[in-house]
Amino acid sequence: MWGGVKNLARLDRAHRRAVEKWRELRRSLPATVSSGRSGLTICSVGFRARQCLEMNDALMKTLNPGIPPPDWLVFDNNVDARELIPSDDPRFIVVRPSSRDTDMGYEHALGIAELLSRVRTRFLLVQDPDCFLVQPDWIRGVTSYMDEHQLGFFGTPINPRRHNSYRYFPYMVCMFVDLARVPAADLCFIPDVWRLTTNVTYRLRRTLTAIPKIGALFRWLLTEQWLTNGWRIKAQYGDGRLVKHESVQPVWDVNEAIPAGSLKRLVHALTPASISPVPKLKDYCSPAGFSTMGAPDVAGLGWEEFVWRQQPFAFHVGSVHGKPGQYEAQLDRVLSHWGVGTGEALSAAAAH
Predict the structure, then answer these.
(1) 26, 59, 62, 129 from 347: Cα distances, Å
(2) Which of 144, 155, 192, 207 has the greatest number of C-beta atoms within 10 Å?
(3) Are 350 and 344 in contact (CB under 8 A)?
(4) How much is the mean pLDDT over the chain?
């Protein structure tokens, strides 16, 4: 027990260090930029992601012909020399940490913060290396759409299967921001899951859901309670009063999760939206995935699909990406549908 208490205290200290580091970085971030400014900058944190970044760059250029490639800023968080992005790689602007004194969950958030001060365009895309945008002409399409509809945020939400994380708002896996409407200084991606009070409260809630036979009755206690990266942004802007925001549809069949006529359906009907483990916002999810739209069945690989305007918009490899040698060949075959797969992934997988 004493060991558990010490670990909770250690995690809380790490949280406080990360928050203090964010405050230091925030001082250098600008206010909103002029609406007359144009362009897009992509910001990513690289960790075991060199190949994903390279394929993503090729995909972005293939799907957006005739548009000058945006600056792609990469906070290179790798410790494996084979995964390091060369500093002279013309495709990316590489930034490396000066020290490693925070845990990985915080390094991701702080890595994005490090890059924000280098953004000089109106539009920003915070993108995980293993999230692939597949809609043709998406650079022009998304930025024009955001401008026309006066959106501050646009992108992919967290998959609703993860009901304990926030929803109805873009997540940092793929989050577009109009910096003429949202100050960069408001983009704090620091999670709150390891702060002492939040950590203890969440553990107690999770313990209740693990009680044999009746644990499912307490699942609602976890709804939107995992305060992951970006939750502060959602808390500030999620109600839409400061700026408007919009999310593309995650592919998830609600009717399959809670079949008509089932007890789950009855419980769902009676549960308030604020605590329901299943989203109730109309058309938030799409039951139709890539395979119904003539694209590869990415969901069949265990990856997340997102659609916009009834067309494939993006997919996210997710946790599978953390296993080098097990996904590269599949990714290569999938991307060949959009003219990028070249077979090079097979050789790279073998090299690992």
Answers:
(1) 42, 19, 22, 19
(2) 155
(3) no
(4) 90
Q: What is the CA radius of gyration of the chain?
A: 20
Q: What pLDDT was estimated at residue 80?
A: 81
- Listed in order, strand segments (DSSP E) in 174-330 are 174-178, 244-247, 249-250, 304-308, 311-316
- Give residue 260's pLDDT: 81
> Where are the alpha helices (H) located in 175-262, listed in sequence order?
196-209, 231-237, 254-257
Please choose, from the candidates 60, 281, 273, the residue with its C-alpha nearest in 3D space to the C-alpha of residue 157: 281
Residue 187 pLDDT: 97
Tokens encoding 278: 């299943």
Section 113-123 average pLDDT: 95
User: With contact defined as beta carbons under 8 Å apart, do 284 and 160 qualify?
Assistant: yes
Number of domains in the chain: 1
CB 251 within 8 A of CB 306: yes
pLDDT of residue 103: 64
Rounded to two decimals, the pTM is 0.93
Q: Is 348 left (phi over 0), alpha (psi -120 to 50) or beta?
A: alpha
User: Is residue 342's pLDDT more than 70?
Assistant: no
Whole domain around residue 164: which residue ranges? 2-351
Euclidean distance between CA atoms 264 and 266, whole angstroms: 5
Give the residue carrying structure tokens 């991701």. 108
